[in-house]
Structure formats: structure tokens, C-alpha cells
Amino acid sequence: MQPRNMSMSGVVDLAAVKAAQEAKAKAEQARAEAARQGGGGAVSPADLVIDVDEAGFERDVLQRSTEVPVVIDFWAEWCQPCKQLSPVLERLAVEYDGRFLLAKIDVDANQLLMQQFGVQGIPAVFAVVAGQALPLFQGAAGEAQIRQTLDQLVQVAEQRFGLTGLTVDPDAEPGGGDRAAQDVPAGPYDALLEAAVRALDSGDLSGAVQAYRNVLADDPGNPEATLGLAQAELLQRVQGLDPVRVRKDAAEKPQDVEAQIVAADLDLVGGHVEDAFGRLIETVGRTAGDDRETVRVRLLKLFEVVGAEDPRVIAARRALARALF
């Protein structure tokens, strides 16, 4: 299974939006269910380092990354620097006490994963957070540098995605935490939401929009469907656009509300969140009446895509209030 929704541009992008919002809820649900069944949802220290192959990548890395950052160590038996780095990462995985999970991938046996991540040489270390790939470092690295990188990773995972890691119990049976998480019952809309995700992955934006709307018809407050719909509609709006023409129009026509709105959509899809927000806030400041309201409503839609708790949304809301009043 090749990795889905991978982005090497950074840990926060469109594909991460939905995963970031659902990650905390899924982790809390798993812990609550494990506690109800009499367990703490705790894992053994032995569970903090796992071997991963292509067949188990989605289960062992993508799914697990919605509850804990997963650090990937690309290695090979013949690689001498790997033999120096891997034991350090394994020791730190235990020392960090569940704040990240270490997944070891043998590149000789998993060429497809190596290609998907764009690995040019080993050792190479990546992280996956809420389903998104982030390159950490390649080649030899000192322990101080590794610790600094890991500290930044776990901080981003907690602050931006609500991922507080795994509970570790030295007395827990190896594999027990995984079984507790797998026993969590499916939600009433999981099938519809999964259908929407599959539609997004296959490029069927209309199908994804309809699937999310089906969920919202029965459960108007469903947060995953709300976010998913906002993302799918955004992707629909930019489909087929000529980015060069859109940006040229926006630059030449600063007073053209539609030109600025379309350019903001492209900014957001490209990962330029602050640029998208700033463009529309400036447009709000120089418009009035129906034009201003049109821009304001589109900006609120973009806030939905990124998520209300994102610090960039919080800052943009304050800036919007200043522009309005």
C-alpha cells in the first residue's frame, strides 16, 4: 500500500486539515473505550519500535499517525551509518515515553515506499503526523541534533494537531495497546465518511461533496463532514484554473472582488495560508456593501478548511474584525 495524501512541503497542508481535526477525537475515543473495558489503552515499551512494510504502511503508519507522531527510519542491512543511527533512534523512542512511535523500513524490501517518500540516500528519517509526511534529516546526525528535531516534532504534533502521544506501561503486554484501539466501535457515519475520503483520493470531487452532504443531512454538526465538505468544495473551485492567469488578474485588478477570491483559493490550495487570509482581509478593507459581504463569507469558508483552532485562523479573525470595524 503506497502512502496516501503525502506532502513534502510541510506538516500543515490541505490534506492534513481533516486528519488534524479528527486525530484528537479518534485518540480520545480509543483511550476512553480502552478505559471502559478495564484497560488504560497503554502500550508496552516494546510497541514503540515497529518494523513496517508496504502491506502494513497504511495501518501501522498512516492510521497510527492520527494518535501519535510516527518517525520513519529508512535503513538497510548493508548501510553502516544506519547501524549507528538506528540504535540511537530506538533508544530515544523508549526514552520519549510514547511521544512518538518509531517505524523502521528496510529499503531493500520496500522500494515503493522509498520512492514515494523521495528517499535519495540512507539513512533517511521522516515523520508522519496526522497522515502527512515531513522530512526530518538525512545522513549522519548527532544525538543533540536528533533530540532537538524530535522536540520540535512532538511540540508541533501536540500544539497543532492535539496529538499527545501514547500511554506507556512497562508492565503492559506487547501489542495490548493496539488491540484496545482496534476494539473501538465504528461511528454511525464511518462508512459514508470513508466513501468521501476514497472519492477525494480518486479525484472524484463531486462524489466527495455529495458523500459529505449526505452525512450533514442527518448530522448537521458533524465536524469531520463539515471540514471535509469545505475542503472538497475548495478543490472543486480551483479545478481547471490556470494559476498564471489567476495571479495575473489578481495583481492587475486589485479592486476586482472575484479575482481576489479566486486567487485566495489558489493560495490556500498551495499551502500559502497567511497569503490567502491576508489577500481577502485586505479586500474586505477596501470594499463595502455586497462586495464586502461576499469576501467576508468566502474568508469564513477558508477558515473552515483550516480549522478554528489553528493559530493562523485566530490571528486572521482578529485582523478581519479590525478591517470590518
Molecular structure report:
With 325 residues, the chain is an alpha/beta fold. The protein folds into 3 domains: 14-182, Glutaredoxin (3-Layer(aba) Sandwich), CATH 3.40.30.10; 188-239, no CATH class; 241-325, Serine Threonine Protein Phosphatase 5, Tetratricopeptide repeat (Alpha Horseshoe), CATH 1.25.40. The protein contains 14 helices and 5 strands. The protein starts with 13 loop residues before the first helix and ends with a helix. This is Thioredoxin.
Task: Describe this protein with a few key phrases.
14 helices; redox-active center; disordered N terminus; Glutaredoxin; 325 residues; 3 domains; 5 strands; 58% helix; single chain; five-stranded mixed beta sheet; elongated; 9% strand; Serine Threonine Protein Phosphatase 5, Tetratricopeptide repeat; Thioredoxin; alpha/beta
